[in-house]
Amino acid sequence: MIFEEKKITLKNGKTAVLKSPCIADAEKMLNYIKKACGETDFLARYPEEWNITVEQEESWVTRMRSAPNTLGITCYVDNEVAGNCEINFKEGIKTSHRAIVAIAILKDYWNLGIGSSMLEELVAAAQKRGTEIIELEFVEGNERAKHLYEKFGFRITSEKPNAFKLKDGTYLKEIYMQKYL
């Protein structure tokens, strides 16, 4: 699915652009996710686990743009990737009323309103599609994410203990949330 370009004003006064990722930005996307994974323990991988090529990333962008059940939105600030989000609409008779969202933002862009703007667009896309439940997960300790999701009406539904094991041996739980539309 394609997201039509939209400009937003950040809390610091800068202009950001929300749009679907493009093939030409595959390398930027790859660099962004590696950097994001190195900035926090709250994402599922470490930077060195991203062993994909630019060509593989281009292929992923192409598939996502043409997928009828996936909408990806990338936030660009000064033509650089600042964040990315995605909503995946479930398929099948029994689960098509649900969708799953994910968001990641580079540390330099935290607390500027990017997460709120992107989540607002994902919720709107879900409503337009007739989705009944939006689901997400976040990692224990990520209070910034928890606050954002609660602000949008998401509520905790369950936890998965010891879901993440960090390099230092620390375990973190995943916390699952849902929002009913």
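(ticket continues) Second input and output from the same batch:
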Amino acid sequence: MVEISNLITAHSYRYSSAVWEGKLNKKEVRRMGLPWSKSLAIRSRHAVQGTINAALMALQDGISGNLAGGTHHAMSDHGEGFCVFNDVAVAIKVLQRAKWLNKVLVIDCDVHQGNGTAYIFRDDPSVFTFSIHGEKNYPFIKPPSDLDIGLPDKTGDSEYHKILISALDQIFTSFKPDLVFYLGGIDPLETDHFGRLSLTLKGLRERDRIVVETVTQKDIPLTLLLSGGYAPTVEETVIAHAQMFGVAKEMGF
């Protein structure tokens, strides 16, 4: 479980303590979108530590992942959009403080813009935030990332892949990260009732392959995070989320 001293590298002490002690006010709970419980507080701290551990393992082994990560809507002083703490932001801050790395790239392919991550690193040139998302989807106020690509409703496989490849080429031309975090949300799926995009399951797998292959071929450590998304059934949801790790395994990791 992540220590409070590490949590407050990206979150305020007041907010971090309020989550742990159950002292969030009604507005904060409503904004977070989840009812507070001790189990939620414990789970949220474990998830953050999982991302820290995964990042350290990626630096050692080339690639790693956390099945509980990708809570990109959490801001420094409040939770939002079912996200309590911003695990990626904390992991970056902790590893930078420990001098494990300097420059970091966040590739966020969840259908919802990574507003929390974008806002936390808005004035930090050592962290490049990239979000490719549904333009008309939540959040409706989107703090600017270093690169935002808002896609129109019903964007399908071929157009999505073309835009993603071009964006990654553009980013790596000018930014050389020591580590990449990949938030591979499955909510761009055409079967996701809230996603508004139209990727097929095969197209989603190709998206994951594009990201994993692009990063690993450059010999840059990569941390995989699930982020959000829902398929019509639990089984289909698990299959869609697992594809990202399957792609990495097929590449020899």
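Agent notes: The two ends are 26 Å apart (CA to CA). The mean pLDDT is 97. Closing as not reproducible unless the customer responds.
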